[in-house]
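Notes on consecutive records. When two proteins share a document, each keeps its own sequence and its own token line. Never mix them. Below: protein one.
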Amino acid sequence: IAALVQAHEKYAGGETQILYVDDNLYIMQRTGYGDKPGLVYVLNNHGDAWNGTTVNTRWQNSNFIPVAWWSKSDRYRPYNQQTNAEGSGQFYAAPRGFAIYTPAG
């Protein structure tokens, strides 16, 4: 939980925008403001598998690194992700877990 609080304090600035939502997956972004670069937050309600999808973020051609994540059943670090020229990228979280990604650099 400490990593979640630290990620929020360090990266979560700007507007909140929902990028995707269904019964098992919620993805949002904080757009960044001032010294807080923003983030992508993924919440996976699926009980037995990693879950994610492609979403359109505000960041074009950007590398994303996971800065916080948690799942009771799967503690593996999520993979870094990349957005394309349109800002589209794939973001995932472990079963019944979450992941927070932030643009690198």
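Protein two starts on the next line and is unrelated to protein one.
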Amino acid sequence: MKNNNKTEWAKYSGLGIQMAASVIICLYIGQWIGLKFGFENLGALFGTLFGLFASIYNLIKQIKN
């Protein structure tokens, strides 16, 4: 049973880094799209929000499994 606890901890150890990376990547994509269409700040906001919601969705999906 102790071995199971070690694998559970390892399973979730990278989720924080994965969440941060997805938010940062979506931020840059949103800024790039915003620059193309002339609304950089709004694009960055939507990119950040999309990355945040996507990472929370992934977190919930990982926890349920």
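For the record: The mean pLDDT is 87.
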